[in-house]
Amino acid sequence: MLQIDFDLRHFESVEIVPIADCHCGNPLFQDHILKQTIDYILEEPSDPKMARICLLNGDLTESVTRHSVGNVFDQTMTPSVQVSTMINYLKPLTEISEKYPQGKILSYCAGNHDSGRYKDTGISAAESIAVGLGLEDRFSVDGCYSFIELNRLHKKSEKMVCTIYNTHLSGSAGTVGGKANRVLRAGVNGGIIADIIVGSHVHQPITFKEDIILPCRNAKNSLIQKTITYLVTGAMLSYGDYAQRNGMKPSSLVMPRIYIRQGQKQGLTGKERFYYTEVLL
């Protein structure tokens, strides 16, 4: 599994904006939503202690071939132009600075569309985009597990690291519950534990939390209750085409935002640091 260490030690909190299921090249692709999303990520938050970054979670391009689902002649541009178009859109997010030494893209997991051409041509649109953006070390076709290090609230505080796992997901589901089960399978049900687990593919924004009990092997063996936040992202497609012909619901154009914040609370041994996650749809 790909592991990523992401340095945000100039900040005490972070806002993460997922970008997924753009389907650039599809005639229903809403490029203005992608442009607005990128402009928003590039804009600095009003809180100078909060970072704003994104993650890429697959199907950035349509990438239909003669042997895949869809009509190759319906695409508004060739697969190679789809790749170069997405690179041009996303390139500003890779710029590094003192506060963002790795740029503003946390990770990139491929989807079934932007990696599907590989079985026909040996070429992956997703991998080509990753290379074009210089993200080879943060790219996976399966899933990305990231460790985000934030600044300590106090000098004597322990290192603050939160975890996020993102994968594109697969399969279909007609109900909200079925779509939520897709991301559950990618998380604890699939053997992966992280603070936040993000899936895409089903074009339906969903968020929920789940608590699990874990052992804490410290000086005194104990149990801890851990909260996992799940998120399924939307898409950037208007209604029509395959979805309309097959009686499927419209894709949601909502792009969720994930917030990770730190705080303090009174514990048994004094003030204890904690962090909490919030998803805004």
SSE blueprint:
Layout: E1 2-8, E2 13-19, H1 31-42, E3 50-56, H2 79-90, E4 105-109, H3 118-121, H4 125-133, E5 139-140, E6 144-150, E7 160-166, H5 176-186, E8 196-199, E9 206-216, E10 222-232, H6 241-245, E11 257-267, E12 270-280
Parallel strand pairs: 1-6, 2-3, 3-4, 4-5, 7-8, 8-10
Antiparallel strand pairs: 2-11, 6-7, 9-10, 11-12
Helix pairs in contact: 2-4
Give a written overview of the molecule:
This protein has 6 helices and 12 strands. It has 281 residues and is α/β, with parallel strands linked by helices. The chain has a 6-stranded mixed beta sheet, covered by helices on one side. Strands 5-4-3-2-11-12 form a 6-stranded mixed beta sheet. Mean pLDDT is 87; it is low at 266-271.
| Tally of separate helices | 6
Strand segment count: 12
Order of helices and strands: EEHEHEHHEEEHEEEHEE
Report the β-strand fraction as a percent range.
25-35%
Radius of gyration: 19 Å
Widest beta sheet: strand line-up: 1-6-7-8-10-9
What is the first-to-last residue Cα distance?
Answer: 29 Å
**What is the general shape?**
globular
How is the main sheet built? Answer: 6 strands, mixed
Alpha-beta content class? alpha/beta
Which stretches of 5+ consecutive residues score pLDDT under 50?
266-271
- Percent in helix: 10-25%
Mean pLDDT, to the nearest integer, reads: 87
